[in-house]
Amino acid sequence: MADLSIDFAGIKSPNPFWVASGPPSNTAYQAHRAFEAGWGGVVWKTIGEPIVNVSSRYSGLTLGGMRLAGFNNIELISDRSPETNFREIADVKKRWPKHAVIASLMVDTRERWHEFVTRSADCGADGIELNFGCPHGMCERGMGSAVGQNPDVAETIVGWVMEKATIPVIVKLTPNITNVVYAARAAKKAGAHAISLINTINSITNVNLDTLVPEPFVAGRSSHGGYCGPAVKPIALNMVHACAADPQVGLPISGIGGIGTWRDAAEFVALGSTSLQVCTAIMHHGFRIVEDMTDGLSAYLDSKGMRSLAELRGRAVPQVGNWQQLDLHYKRVARIDYEKCIGCNLCHIACEDGAHQCIDLVDAAPYGLGPGRVPGKPVPKVRENDCVGCNLCSIVCPVDGCITMTPVDTGRPPMTWHDYQAGLAAGTIQPILPHP
Amino acid sequence: MPIQPLIDAATAAETMADVKPPLAAQEARVEASRCLFCFDAPCIMACPTGIDVPTFIRKITTDNVVGAARTILEANVLGASCARVCPTQMLCEGACVMLDLEKDPIQIGRLQRFATDHVAANRIDVLTAPQIKDAGRVAVLGAGPAGLGCAAELARLGYAVTVYDRKPAGGGLNTYGIAVYKMRPEVSLDEVRMIERLGVEFRYGVEVGRDVQCADLARDCDAIFIGIGLGGANRLGIPGEDLPEVVDALEFIDWIHTRPLEQVPVGRRVAVLGCGNTAIDAVTQAKRLGAEEATIIYRRGPAEMSAYAFEYDLAKMDGATFLFDTMPVEVLAADGHVSALRLARTVVRDGRVEVVPGSEWTQPCDLVLKAVGQEKQVRLLERLFPGLKLDRQGRVEHDPATMRTSLSTVFVGGDAANGGREVVNAVAEGKKAARGIHAMLTGKAVTGPVQPSRHGTADGATGSGFNHPIRVHELEAALTKG
Fold first, then answer.
1. CA-to-CA distance for B249 and B261, rounded, in angstroms?
2. Which of A264, A279, A311 represents a domain boundary (last residue)?
3. Residues in chain B closer than 8 A to A344 (CB atoms)
4. Could you report the per-residue pLDDT of B424-438, keeping only the tens digit for each?
5. Rounded (10°) CA dihedral B301, B302, B307, B308
6. What would the CATH number be for the domain defined by B34-127+450-482?
């Protein structure tokens, strides 16, 4: 079995899976349940001056029958007193000394930051996460994403924290920003030990078409909330990669955003994450999901001959870069396996109306009929010369392995945009003609 | 002994309940969301009326149930009854691509019922027709599925249509001849009322040729549509056939539709002659109405029965028994009532059924239901329409593209044209005839919506089932291949 334990900026954890700061990490009771289920760490629900919450608080995005494809909340930070939270952290640490407990903090003045940082270390927390990301409720009061969106302010506040910090400090970044890398660099510059991302994204999930008030509904009104869940994973992966690839950041990353399975986790690790934080999937299915996450991740590492997570970490980072680095002479085309084709023609109509018009419907006779295909019904056929290899047909095809994007030899050596521009300038190559 | 009702109302309500119950709203949405929304979908091609199935199913996923019903009813005005009585396994569901994914096909029939039930229950009219019917005048003979399909389409095209039927209500076999556990007659009557609201006039209790003369209709109308279906059951030609408890299976099913279920007389030991889908409807309902024994007697083997496999399975599950390679030679009576059947083994030689000499035996029974096929109404047609050409099997000859008969202003559809097929074929033919009439009178073709493609209008797309009905054996061959 591969070693899943991690050392994240000095915070040790038996596995990389941490309960993210949020409703599942609100109490000692939940932390105990999480550790009993197999989680490696808990990032406590953000501690600050106690707030008051509204009823209701959450809304979900259902797609094609899948509930919680996306999830939105307008709940604020912990509504329990700092005393209660720090006392419970101390209790949890006593019972789970080898597991990671991180205190998430959000306060306003320098004095308050000093006080809360000190109290976090005193109660035995393994680290501190600075909540610079919450996009609702707190930001209007100059906290949360209001800090994270301004690198100068973030740098100042991280500086205050570092004045008193005796345990590792993680800065949690907001995605509601033009380029997350600037915020990450600010954290680094101010001396933070690590970053975590992404926090939730500003959102309105849907409008109730009878009341014309979005959910969550609060006495005839609603408010923009924080969006998370499986649907945000691609945004999170992109931002994690941006930070991992930036030479000026160079901090350990705790990946957050739509992680619900070991596969998601492995992707975040491959793009540079060390620890992984999960909230929405727990809110959907409970703490028990971690069993498959550890089991599956471990089996995956074994199957790839990797002995530890460190061997996977960042392995996909170098393959992602600027568009200009891509080979303009590479070509792949769609090939249809008629043994597998069920005749839904989704590839045809997607290509015809949504892409590049290179899949025809032709007489089925030369291709045989699938077992249920109706006689006389035409079959899709790719005109490979016109196929630009866009992938759309293979994405819409409902049958695994039916449409394969197959590389074809163009007989031309690799050429990037840079090469192309240089060649044009030097007069050594002809311009590529515009598509007719 | 004369036959009597055997069960009480409460029991009948249970035994005759829907075999395919309606879908609840969430069930319907979940089922609908399984649909892949195929382009140029095989289910459309397999539907004789060419319902755009993926479109109506997608509308269910978006909670646009009224729109779903509109998509259905615009293509097939009897969408509610077809949702219940279509052999969907042989048509749309049999063509579903899900079968190729080793998954259950989308339950198109039940989804169609969900959508059409919604508009019926909420009294929403999704079809519209011009108020002023000045396009022409058409007489429709027969208020069965073919006549209704024709009348509705003509009304929507602006024709003044009068439908004549000898029964006291419309719907034809949909109202009087479908197993109650598949469809209640109210569903069919609701459809008739919907077509009335399109401006179609119905005259019931009218026998054409007696109460109304065809010559008058021909003079007053621009066209006549023949949708008279088939006649009574074929004669058996055996002694005892005219005993009171020897009844047409369709007559027995008619009793079920016109009397309270607890008042339908049923034999304790029922023999059903024939093994088509009507025989199955009869034997199954006899069982459900309390018959102790209900036996299908068929002179050929199971491979040759015309009942669909799923109908055969249903009858077996209901406890019906099957005597294959057996035929009746005499109906025996005691005190003027049926007491037994004299039966004989048969063997098929060179395609012909022969009785095995000396194989006869007597089986007690008190009700004999004849489901040996319906007679063609050859004499009636010859009397009503002198010069009308019939084929050798007694079907009205017609141009398959327009349903026009050998008489230039007379059109035909349904069982009178095809010799006896499904309800959906009758509706499709009625619709096609309406378009044929319109084309004859205006020179303009009517086409359904078609999906545009690079190859011009996709002939294989929406509505193609209307032009090229998939024959069941073709589909079966395709399904069993590989």
1. 16
2. A311
3. 36, 38-39, 41, 97
4. 999 999 999 999 999
5. -150
6. 1.10.1060.10
| Separation CA B283–CA A212 (nearest Å) | 55
Cβ B97–A374 below 8 Å, yes or no? Answer: no
Closest residue, chain B, to A379 (C-alpha): B40
Are the beta carbons of B126 and B66 closer than 8 angstroms? Answer: yes
Q: Which residues of A touch chain B, with CB atoms under 8 Å apart?
A: 64-65, 342-346, 348-349, 352, 357, 360-361, 369-378, 398-399
Contacting residues of A for B470, CB less than 8 Å apart: 374-375
Q: Could you tell me how many residues make up chain A?
A: 436
Say which CATH number the domain at A402 has: 3.30.70.20
Give burial (CB, 10 Å; 0-12/13-18/19+) of B194: buried
On whether the CB atoms of residues B407 and B416 are closer than 8 A, the answer is: no
Domain coordinates of chain B in residue numbers? 34-127+450-482, 136-231+375-446, 246-370
Domain extent, residue A21, equals 6-311
**How many structural domains are present in chain A?**
2
User: Domain for residue A77, yes or no?
Assistant: yes
User: In chain A, which residue's Cα lies nearest the Cα of B28?
Assistant: A65
Tell which CATH classification among 3.50.50.60, 3.30.230.10, 3.40.50.300, 3.30.565.10 matches the domain B136-231+375-446: 3.50.50.60
Q: How close A433 comes to chain B (CA, Å)?
A: 25
Is A285 found in the same domain as A146?
A: yes
Q: Are strands A100-105 and A41-43 parallel, antiparallel or unpaired?
A: parallel
Residues A305 and A405 in one domain: no
Q: What is the mean pLDDT of residues A356-366?
A: 85
Instruction: Give the per-residue pLDDT at B470.
Output: 35
A305 and A350 inside one domain:
no
Residues of A in Cβ contact (< 8 Å) with B37: 346
Beta bridge partners of B273: B297, B370
Question: Contact B97/A344, CB-based, under 8 Å?
Answer: yes
Question: Is pLDDT of A370 > 80?
Answer: no
Q: What is the CATH number of the domain that holds A75?
A: 3.20.20.70
Phi, psi of B297, rounded to the nearest 5 degrees: -115, 120
Strands A66-73 and A100-105, sheet pairing: unpaired
Report whether B228 contacts B206 (CB < 8 A). Answer: no
Identical fold between B136-231+375-446 and B246-370: yes
In chain B, which residues have pLDDT < 50? Answer: 449-482
In a domain, A254, yes or no: yes
Residue of B33, B460, B479 lying closest to A378 (CB–CB) = B460
Q: Which chain B residues are within 8 Å of A373, Cβ to Cβ?
A: 42, 100, 478
> Cβ separation of A372 and B460 shorter than 8 Å?
no
A159 close to A171: Cβ distance less than 8 angstroms? no
In this predicted structure, the answer to whether residue A103 has a pLDDT above a threshold of 60 is yes
Q: What's the pLDDT score for residue B1?
A: 75
Beta strands in B185-336 (DSSP E): 201-204, 223-226, 246-248, 269-273, 293-297, 321-323, 326-334
Residue A389 within a domain:
yes
Last residue of a domain, one of A276, A311, A346: A311
What ipTM was estimated for this complex? 0.85
* Partner residues linked to A3 by β-bridges: A308
Distance CA B55, CA A147 (A): 49
Distance CA B20, CA A388 (A): 48
pLDDT tens figures, A28-74: 999 999 999 999 999 999 999 989 999 999 999 999 888 999 999 99
User: What's the CATH fold of domain B246-370?
Assistant: FAD/NAD(P)-binding domain (3.50.50)
* Tokens matching residue B256: 């079920």
Amino acid A366: pLDDT: 77
**Nearest-angstrom CA–CA distance, B227 and B142:** 5
| Same domain flag for A346 and A223 | no
Judge whether A435 lies within some domain: no
Active site residues of A: 134
- Average confidence score pLDDT of chain A: 94
